[in-house]
Each structure stands twice: as structure tokens, then as C-alpha cells.
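Please go through this protein, sequence plus C-alpha cells, and consider how the sequence yields the C-alpha cells. Keep your notes short.
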Amino acid sequence: MLNLKRLTKTAALVAVFMMVAVTAQAAGFKKEYKMQVTVGPKLYWGMGATKFAELVKEKTNGQIIVKPYFGSALLKGAQLKSSQMVAKGVIDCAMDSTINISPVIPEANIFHLPFFLNDFETLDKVKYGQAGEAVFEAMKAKRLQPLAWAENGFRQLTNSKVAVKTPEDMKGLRIRVVGNPLFIDTFRALGADPVNMNWGDAVAGFQQGVVDGQENPVGVLIPIQIYQYHKYASMWNYLVDPLIIYWNQREWKAFPNEIQAAILEAAKEAGRFETALSRAGLDGEISHDILKNEFNYTMEVPNPISFMESKGMEVHQLTDEERDAFAKATHSVYDKWIKEIGPEVYEKAKADIAR
């Protein structure tokens, strides 16, 4: 016999779904809003994008459906074009790194000046201060609507040759870097040989001994199992690439106020979740408590440094004196790049830090 009670419940759910779909269609919303994400779904960045999509659906009662496209699938791997494509409306929104938007938003390079922002406290002061607002305003001028900050993390150095503690240790090291000219200038200033290559080629280079090292946040180093290739890690916090959740500005302005408010709330919540993922185990118990108490989430690797050491890596934490030596060695980078970023943005960042 048919279970009438179950059928009635199913029919009710279908009716609710149809009502939401009709409401969304009547309001002129798309069936799907495409989201560009550079990395895969298992990295913290990708997990943050998934969380954002889930929260948007929840907070808009299913009226707005965001679908993350991981691995820059919408761009065929050309991740540096994401901001242009969102500005044009080809892609609706993105969760992107300041590295990737910097070709269009040079102000975003304020986070990439070497040894300028060395800890979470100063990073937060700049993100949520005058300099961070200047980055957001620059995005708005390029038809992008910034919604919230997240984080890829401070980028750390690993290599197969030597424990890097001084600038002299960098001499001659062939280091894989991202395709940002500021990064290349920084490693050249340190006497290293920076090489821009995609990750697949870099791994082959590690295995063949053609490339000696690389730089990435610990949230990337552990999933890619960097310990398979490198013995030495230097926790030097030499620069950071925050993430920004942003939307096509024209499309954003067409949303009703209540939809904007719901998406904005989702972005801030997802950003807080993803930032806590990236910082967990690096800021004492602060991020662990956020994840546990606010998101009911427990880290699989609660202490990334201990984990890397357990895999046979030698991890060195730079002292203040050692970091000062690296900062001095890269001073020439400032002479060139403050002009590119904008002296006023640099001064705002310094004022933020001094607060």
C-alpha cells in the first residue's frame, strides 16, 4: 500500500521548491550564478567558496544559487583574467586572491610588499583599515563589487637544498613563484633564481631536481604533500595573499536590497570560516575556537607545523633579527613597487599598522 503520509510530505516539499523556483524566476534571477575559484574544492580556499555557496542559498531561501567552478575551469586555467571576466559580466562572481586581481587592481599589491605585514594582527589592521578600503574602492572603480575578506595565508618557503635562515642562504636557489612581477623582483633581490611555472610543471621540476623550492601558505603545503619533495621549510611570513569575495557590480546593483543583504552576510560568514581554516594552528587556539564554536568544525590537521615535522621536514621559525635582515635585503623592491601600488595606499597601510 502507498504511504499517504510520506507522499503528502513529499508533495509539500516539491510545492515549496516550485514556489521558490517560480519566485526566483519572477524576480528575474538566474538559475545559476557562476563563481570563479582558482583552486580545487579540498583546499581551504575551495572550502570557503563551497561554504559561501551554501550560505547564499540558505540566506536567500533558494532564490540565488551560486555554483563554484574550481580550478579556474571557467577561464581554462587563466586565473589572472578572473577580475576582467567578472567586470565584464562573463562570470558573475569570484573568490579570488589579491595576487590574481593585482594586474587590474595594483593597489592589491600592498599585501605583497616583502616583510611588510608579518603577523595576523598587522594583517587585520590593513585589511579592515584605510588601505583595505582603498583596495575595495579601486575594485569598485573597475566595475567589481567587493563583499568580504578571506585568506589564503602567509606564504612560506620550502626547498630541498638548505635550511634558509639568512638572505645568503637564498643565493642560487631556483624557486618556483607565481606570475606576479613583484614576487620575481623579491626573489631576485635575495639572490635566488625565481621561475614562473604552473604547479604540474613545478612538481615535475622538484622530482627531477630542476627546481629547488617554492613558496605557498601551509594550507596549500599540507594538501599537496610538499614533504614528498622538500626537507626544509622556513616560516618567514614574507608576504600574504588575502582572498576577496566579489561580484559583478552591475549585476549586484540590480539585486533587491534584501538579496544584497543576504549575500553580503553570507560572504562575511564564509570569509570568517575560511580565514579560521587558514589560521588554525598558527594563532594559538583563536581560530580553532572559532571553527568549533561558530561552525561546529574540527581541523583534520590541528597543528600544521608539527604535522610537517612529523613527516621529516626541518621547520625553522625566523627570529625578529633574521626577518629584519631579509627586509633590508629586499628594500630595493619598495623603491620600485610603492610607485606602482600608489604612495597614498602605502601611507594608509602604515597608518593602519600604527593604530
Remarks:
- The two ends are 72 Å apart (CA to CA).
- Confidence is low (pLDDT under 50) at residues 12-22.
- The first helix runs from residue 4 to 26.
- The domain at 27-152+242-295 is CATH 3.40.190.170 (D-Maltodextrin-Binding Protein; domain 2).
